[in-house]
Amino acid sequence: MGNILVAPSILSADFLKLGEEIKKVENAGADWIHFDVMDGHFVPNISFGIPVLKSIANSHGLVNDVHIMISDPKFYAPKFVEAGADYVTFHLEACKDLQECLEIIDDIHVLGAKAGISLKPKTDVCTIIPILRFIDLVLIMSVEPGFGGQSFIEESLKKITFFKDYRTDHQEAHYLIEVDGGINDKTGALCRDAGADVLVAGSYIFGHDDIKDRIARLKK
User: Fold this and answer.
1) Which are the catalytic amino acids?
2) Residue 185, class by beta-carbon neighbours within 10 Å (0-12 exposed, 13-18 middle, 19+ buried)?
3) % the chain with pLDDT above 70
4) Which stretches in the chain have pLDDT values below 50?
5) Considering only CA atoms, which of 152, 153, 154, 174 is closest in space to residue 163?
6) Spatial contact of 50 and 84, defined as CB atoms under 8 Å apart
7) Which of 37, 137, 179, 202 could in theory staple to 116 by disulfide, Cβ–Cβ 3.0 to 4.6 A?
8) 3-class SS string, 165-201
């Protein structure tokens, strides 16, 4: 669906200089900025929430790509849209059924944002086939959600190909395919070749002197 988009994850940024860090990746060619929201319940870690998003959502020209790894997406998804999210991606596994997923998607769309669904590595891709035509993004976790710096799970490539082929075969499907976890220049190339549209990268980008080159390598 066009050029690869790069979404640096602020989970790996220097929080003492968060505004500067975002500006740095924006100037280096990033397209989106990725917010990993963790509640310590759905995943075994706690990151940041609505106040952080609200404080920086309008301080840059990037797309605010918010991934909520939390237990009650029905309650929280609209609040992240109101705080400045352009995309809110929630977990299929956090919902009691597909009907609840559809309700959350509607809530996000009504507020003017785009809705995404994320799958943990062990979740069967076929589970979300009935609702694929309603979503704007599918986020494939290529590591277990909860912590940065993990190694890429190769099986994720099959999922990328599955969603690419499904989109090709179904005109009503319009989602972007995003991949998050263990992304670097090598795994990023594998994901691109498999059909990914958006690459999320944290430790590969932040904390390095050659950020512009690293983002360019993810795109080429």
Assistant:
1) 36, 180
2) middle
3) 97
4) none
5) 174
6) no
7) 137
8) HHHHHCCCCCCEEEEECCCCHHHHHHHHHHCCCEEEE
